[in-house]
Design a protein that fits this description.
Blueprint (H helix, E strand, L loop, with lengths): L12 H17 L3 H31 L4 H29 L4 H8 L2 H11 L6 H20 L3 E3 L2 E3 L1 H7 L5 H39 L5 H8 L6 H30 L5 E2 H4 L14 H15 L1 H12 L3 E2 L1 E10 L4 E7 L4 H19 L13 H14 L4 H5 L3 H31 L5 H15 L3 E2 L17 H5 L5 H19 L1 H12 L7 H7 L8 H17 L7
Parallel strand pairs: 3-7, 4-6
Antiparallel strand pairs: 1-2, 5-6
Helix pairs in contact: 1-2, 1-3, 2-3, 3-5, 6-8, 7-8, 8-9, 10-17, 10-23, 12-13, 14-15, 15-20, 15-21, 17-18, 17-20, 20-21, 20-23
Bound molecules: zinc ion.
């Protein structure tokens, strides 16, 4: 069915709630597994439909902002979603307490129960008021960050978009001036941002203790449904410092030479990769969709069929506000959005979303639906690995700029591992020492920068950025603690698939498919090892990736890329 032909109707909110409540009661009273199973499957079907209508309304609203009808529908869903929460919770509790839990786990896997256990352990009546306060502080943080919208620069005032452009200026001195101007503005907010964070840290530490944990870290892991431990994370950090930092440092030394700036780099030079600008795609929308089809056809018949299904059924919206991956469970159809704006990054995003939606497509027959669209730590594996696999058609997507795009993707992926690990390390220190003062936290961040990003001069030349306050702009630290490492871990697995691809593209594809076929049916590390890949927590994983990357980078011909 084409997307435009999908019929939409608003569900009856009260009837839907009553139906879930009724199914929950039936589940509690079920006398046999056969009976409980039938109720479970009915609940799945019911939610598939409701969920699909919600998403169809959201997509259509995004496709046409002036559409009055879907604007009204948006309001309905906005109210409906939180109101259904307590019914879903009651259902989850009934599943957890069901005498047939073992039978369910045997047939559908115990991942749904593991996840529900995490939810149960991280929530309690005792912390509801604290969680409300936590949300208020997160809102306050967002407002403070948005408030720096007038930045004095040269003889006038510029807005954040304009300063972002100036930060990419080809003139190094002008870039530095832009960073200094923005830093001075941010610095004025620094104290208030510290105050918000102080309260967040104390509040979270208290919530952890109320729930019987040592402090917040274990609660944070529980909220993120983590099956790896703090000790795993610690070993991973040590391996990043040992193997990744030296490779990233070599990339940055090369960059300093290329852009003609001194090493160690000023912070204002760190993101300036080429004087000639970034890579650009070789054609328009239709051309890029065609190249996408060529790529997927070359990978496997099912991959080719997936991509054709997406285009033939209008399951791609190429000029959205940004990239998104959606799955419409009732129709077993994925939908992707991207903003093809002529940049290299937008092509990367296109293939990223294609990776997400391909995994949804491959798992569309799965029960429960929750395994088709699992948590980010798992779904990002599918999308980030696809970014690497898509390099097989870099020539098609980028033509003359293919080498530039490929080099940038690998170089940035490696440098990102060190930054992302630092963000995670910082949070472990902060929540282990909730008594730290703001100044102590800044000093700690500065100390970590010297370890994870030794190629940057954080000497105080640029206000705010050079004074250990940069972490304040990383919103995850305020809004979603311990989330950030997910990007890093999935990025490492993506590089692992890339490393295999260097010696055997066919094997890389087979490993990727082994990962995709499992959907979200197991925890993160199990999915990876089941697919014949090394877990990022195995030191040999980073060691191998870095060895391959080092040889590849050393042999990469950068002639003509300036
Ligand atoms: Zn993604």
């Amino acid at each position: 069915m084409k997307f435009s032909e999908i019929p939409y109707s608003r569900p009856d909110a009260e009837k839907t709630k009553a139906e879930i409540a009724e199914l929950t009661e039936w589940l509690k009273r079920a006398e046999s597994y056969a009976e409980a199973r039938a109720i479970f499957l009915e609940k799945e079907e019911k939610c598939k439909y409701t969920n699909t209508m919600d998403l169809v309304a959201m997509i259509r609203r995004g496709m046409n902002k002036d559409d009055e009808f879907y604007r009204e529908e948006d309001k309905f869903w906005w109210d409906f979603e939180p109101s259904i929460d307590e019914y879903e919770k009651a259902w989850a509790e009934a599943m957890l307490d069901s005498p047939f839990r073992r039978d369910f786990a045997d047939e559908y896997g115990d991942m749904m129960f593991l996840n529900a256990e995490f939810d149960r352990r991280s929530m309690s009546e005792k912390i509801i008021a604290d969680m409300q306060r936590e949300n208020e502080l997160i809102v306050e943080y967002g407002e403070l960050m948005d408030s720096a919208d007038e930045i004095p620069f040269e003889d006038g005032v510029v807005d954040p978009d304009e300063i972002d452009k100036l930060k990419e200026d080809v003139d190094g001195e002008r870039r530095l001036a832009a960073y200094k101007a923005e830093g001075a503005c941010r610095r004025e907010l620094g104290e208030r941002l510290d105050k918000v964070f102080d309260e967040l840290v104390r509040l979270r530490d208290g919530m952890g203790k109320k729930l019987g944990f040592d402090g917040f870290t274990d609660l944070g892991y529980c909220r993120r449904k983590r099956t790896f431990t703090k000790a795993d994370a610690e070993r991973f950090r040590a391996a990043v410092v040992k193997y990744v930092v030296p490779v990233a440092d070599a990339i940055k030394r090369e960059q300093a030479k290329r852009i003609g700036r001194p090493y160690p780099l000023a912070y204002s030079d760190n993101d300036f990769f080429y004087r000639s600008g970034n890579a650009h795609p070789a054609g328009d929308d239709a051309y890029l969709v065609g190249e996408g089809q060529k790529l997927f056809d070359s990978l496997s018949p099912e991959a080719g069929a997936f991509f054709r299904h997406m285009t033939e059924n209008e399951m791609m919206f190429l000029h959205a506000g940004g990239g998104n991956d959606i799955y419409l469970p009732y129709y077993e159809m994925p939908f992707l959005t991207v903003n093809l704006d002529g940049s290299g990054d937008s092509v990367r995003s296109f293939m990223h979303e294609a990776g997400h939606t391909f995994a949804y497509w491959m798992n569309r027959k799965r029960i429960p639906t929750a395994y088709i669209t699992p948590s980010e730590d798992i779904t990002e594996l599918h999308s980030m690995c696809m970014e690497m696999i898509a390099l097989q058609n870099a020539e098609g997507f980028f033509g003359a700029d293919a080498r530039k795009f490929t080099y940038t993707l690998i170089a940035e992926s490696i440098a990102f591992i060190t930054y992302g690990t630092m963000v995670d390390h910082f949070q472990h220190i902060v929540y282990a020492h909730p008594e730290m003062s703001a100044a102590e936290r800044h000093a700690e961040w500065n100390r970590l920068e010297a370890i994870y990003e030794p190629w940057i001069r954080f000497d105080g030349e640029i206000p705010y950025y050079g004074e250990g306050m940069l972490w304040q702009q990383q919103w995850h630290i305020y809004e979603s603690p311990f989330y950030y490492i997910d990007y890093v871990l999935t990025g490492v697995v993506a590089l692992e698939v890339w490393a295999i691809m260097q010696r055997d593209p066919k094997e890389a594809w087979e490993r990727y498919m082994a990962l995709v076929r499992q959907g979200g049916s197991r925890p993160f590390t199990e999915l990876i090892t089941n697919a014949g890949l090394r877990s990022p927590f195995d030191e040999a994983c980073l060691k191998n990736v870095c060895e391959t990357a080092k040889i590849w980078l050393d042999g990469f011909d950068l002639t003509g890329i300036e």
